Each structure stands twice: as C-alpha cells, then as structure tokens.
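Example S7 (structure tokens).
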C-alpha cells in the first residue's frame, strides 16, 4: 500500500484502516524536508535522501505540508498539520497552532472560492477553496474543538528571511505547499493579523461534485511537493484552484488552462481577480452576491470596505427592470458599430454585434453580483 494514500476515488463505504503513524500527536516539522530526520515508517527512504531543492534556512513556521493519517472507523479522513489559529498575547507575535483533525467529505454543504486582495489590489491577490459543512462543525480537531469550514490554500512556501513578490515567483525562488487550515484560522491570519479582506463566492456544484472536489483537494494536499517550485503563472494559488475545479466540472464549464499548451498560459486561469467574471461567465457561480469579511475593526478601522459612488450607482442600475436585456442591447449596438469599421463590413458588423452583446450581458451579471456584495465583521468568527 502507498504510504501517502489517495482519497480521490475512495468510496463512502470504504473499510477502515489504521493510520500510518503511531498514536499521539502528529510528529512536528516537515515530513517532506530531507533535512529533518523522521522515521522511515512515515517517509520512504528515497524521499529522505533526496537533495534539498531550496536553501537550508528553516521554513517559516506558519506553513506545514498536510499529513495523511488515514481514515477513522466512521469514515472520516484524518489529517495532520492542519493550522488551527494563532496564539495571541500582548506584546508578542502571533504563534501558529497546528493540530490533527478529521473531516467527512460526504458532509460538504457548500464550496467557496475565496479571494484575498492585497496591494496592488488591481492585479494582486490570493485565492483558495473553503469547504463549509452541513452540521456546522464539520472539522474536528484532536483537542475536541470544531470549525464549520476547512480551507485548502496553495501557497508559495517561504524560508525564514524570504519575502514573496509576483516577479520573484517566476524564478523558482519559493517552494510550494498545500496549506490546510480551519476557516477561523484564515480569518484570524488575514483579517486580524493583517488588514486584508476575504471575499467568498459560492460555487454551483451538486453534492457529488462537492464531495469529489474535497477528496481531490485532500489528495493533492497529501502529495510530496518537496521538489516543486511555486510559479506565479503556471503553478500558483489560483491556477491550482482552477485545476482542481476543472477536475469536477463538465467539459463545457471548464476553464482552459493553456491558450497554447506548454507555451502560453491563460490569464483567466491565473489571475485571482478575474475569478468573479470568468466563473460567472462559465456558470460556475450565479448572481448570488459574494460575502466580504472585513478586517478586524478594532485593529484596522481605516481598512474597512465601504460603498463607493460607483458601486451604489451600479447597484441601483442593476435593480431596474430589464437591466440585463438593456445591457446586452447596448453592447450589441456598440459592438456592431465597431465591427462595421472592420472589413468586410457586413461580417464585421454581425460579429461585432454578437460579441458586444454577449460581453455586455456577462458584464451586467458581474456588476449586479459585485455591487450587492454583503459585508460581515471578522469578529463574527473570532474571540474578542
């Protein structure tokens, strides 16, 4: 049996088996780091002897690759190195807390693509998947605490002293990690430890797709990534979200990852801030407004999202009768006018009208969705 077992195709009535590690807490550190000695019952020798592809400085302590600890007798997947929040003490830096946890893939209620914009927000941002569970306590930690959501976040894995940047992410400077964490952990990290916003979009998936997406995501999280590099374009947070989504979507709803295979990557499969428009155009999300979790108001009062004049105007316009039809007609007229300038005139006019109408219709749905974004405080999930 493989030591890192795949969950992507395990049926719900699978027999239980013993976790591949002994009883007690998950061994600390990184089981895929060849600089750390861990029992060969957990790491095959060929991995332990692999030369380190990165500098030898310690890994940043808030990131650890997930561990496959098997399946419990009642069918829950058992995971190690799940980040479970940060300790907070006056005058001290937040310290990450890691736990073993279990989750039942058959109990997924909703799946969200979550965006975390950061400066410069017009192009930069992080994205990840969040799985929300039917019983509200779908993720159980070894200490008995629970959380409603499990986050799967693909990140550039940094050594102490490294700082991430988009250009440096193109140069094989950073490792790659699928970081598992609770939803409260991510809200604490992003909205309390930093002045960031989290914007989540609910995906239109059936129950089978939701379960399979979680299984595929865990399978990807458990793989040995010690020889992989993060790449801002082809192996990034959002490109991996798109890849995982494509694994459960029907062909007509998938996002093309390459425009020219192996040569030119599709920006729509790489830039997180295109997610709302592209996923809406593909029918993977609907017109339901996203939910924006604000930065902690007590720490970052000046970082709160507010209604701009443009958002108020777009919201008012999108609530008018016939908004989508009117938008499509206006786009068709403008597209036809532009197309008429391209020879042959008749063909250009027709194609311009069709493309303009289609683009304007999709834009009208995007404006309606974004202008109705609902705001919630981070304090909803965090202890005061």
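Recovered sequence:
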């Amino acid at each position: 049996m493989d030591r890192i077992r795949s969950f992507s195709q395990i049926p719900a009535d699978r027999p239980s088996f013993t976790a591949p590690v002994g009883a007690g807490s998950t061994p600390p550190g990184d089981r895929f780091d060849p600089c750390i000695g861990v029992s060969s019952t957990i790491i095959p020798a060929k991995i332990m002897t692999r030369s380190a592809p990165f500098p030898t400085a310690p890994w940043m302590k808030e990131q650890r690759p997930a561990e496959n600890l098997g399946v419990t007798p009642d069918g829950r997947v058992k995971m190690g190195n799940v980040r479970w929040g940060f300790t907070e003490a006056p005058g001290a830096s937040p310290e990450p807390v890691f736990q073993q946890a279990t989750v039942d893939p058959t109990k997924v209620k909703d799946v969200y693509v979550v965006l975390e914009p950061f400066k410069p927000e017009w192009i930069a941002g992080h994205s990840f998947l969040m799985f929300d569970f039917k019983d509200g306590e779908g993720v159980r930690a070894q200490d008995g605490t629970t959380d409603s959501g499990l986050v799967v976040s693909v990140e550039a894995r940094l050594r102490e002293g490294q700082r991430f940047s988009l250009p440096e992410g193109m140069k094989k400077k950073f490792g790659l990690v699928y970081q598992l964490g609770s939803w409260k952990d991510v809200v604490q990290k992003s909205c309390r430890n930093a002045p960031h916003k989290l914007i989540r979009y609910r995906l239109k998936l059936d129950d089978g797709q939701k379960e399979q997406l979680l299984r595929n995501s865990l399978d990807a999280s458990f793989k040995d990534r010690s020889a992989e590099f993060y790449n801002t374009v082809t192996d990034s947070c959002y490109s991996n979200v798109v890849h995982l989504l494509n694994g459960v979507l029907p062909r007509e709803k998938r996002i093309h990852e390459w425009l020219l295979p192996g040569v030119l990557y599709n920006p729509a499969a790489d830039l997180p801030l295109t997610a709302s428009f592209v996923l809406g155009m593909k029918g993977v999300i609907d017109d339901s407004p996203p939910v924006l979790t604000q930065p902690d108001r007590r720490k970052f009062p000046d970082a709160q999202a507010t209604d701009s004049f443009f958002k108020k105007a777009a919201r008012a316009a999108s609530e008018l009768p016939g908004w989508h039809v009117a938008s499509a007609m206006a786009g068709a007229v403008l597209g036809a006018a532009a197309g008429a300038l391209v020879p042959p005139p008749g063909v250009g006019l027709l194609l311009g009208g069709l493309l303009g109408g289609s683009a304007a219709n999709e834009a009208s749905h995007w404006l309606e969705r974004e202008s109705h974004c609902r705001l919630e405080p981070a304090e909803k999930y965090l202890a005061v």
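Notes on this example. Residues 309-371 form one domain.
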